[in-house]
Amino acid sequence: MTALDLTPAPGAVSPIRMVLSQASYELRATLRNGEQLLLTLIIPVVLLALFGGTSLLDLGPGSRVDFLTPGILALAVMSTAFTGQAIGTGFERRYGVLKRLGATPLSRSGLIIGKTLAVLAVEALQAVVICAVALAMGWRPDGDPLSVLALILLGTAAFSGFGLLMAGTLRAEATLAAANLVYVLLLAVGGVVFPLERFPSGVASALELLPISALAEGLRQVLQDGAAFPGGPLLVLAVWAVAGLALAARFFRWE
Description:
By secondary structure, the chain is mainly alpha-helical. Helix content is 73%, strand content 0%. It has one domain. The chain has helices at residues 15-31, 34-53, 64-94, 97-102, 108-136, 145-167, 172-189, 201-207, 211-223, 231-251. Helix 1 crosses helix 5 and helix 6 packs parallel to helix 10.
């Protein structure tokens, strides 16, 4: 019989394992939080069903659900990656959770990546539910799935960066108020349910540079018009993503 080797073999956990462990924790915490699910899943579905199934809003010619679904998908990305993450992380920072994480080998960038991976998992669930509701309402998407994936990934990176920047620099109460205010404002002026063409031309041109507008318009170009890799929206999202993640990594405070 071969003798068991019980010699201790100490060693550091790999950064990948640390990031995956953090992502798993973040995902479980989100799915257990009813308020987070209300924000990230129920509200977008209600908006799609309400405005897609009624004539409360004049959305112009064409199918209402074809116009709304890409915007609602963009809203779902923002609600998860920005609003929900900013609020959740802000209160983790207030209650000392992040201070304890700061005492571990997990780096700031590792925390950001772990949270972003959890966000992507929640977004996958959101996309399944929203698309199922839209298809039941008569939505018939057209376009390249890789273009949709590229837009969502860049949008997630952009919103995650600024959500974490807000949570890591402001007090929890200020983050709660600011994140909800930004959510409402971008819902109103980001081309989610109101076409940007209804705004004056100068205002519309400025609004097109917002990340929510770029994501919603890019998804419409792909899913409604069949475009492949819309350059303008992808460029806008890439700029926001680089800026947001760089600022979050630089200024995020654990306490």
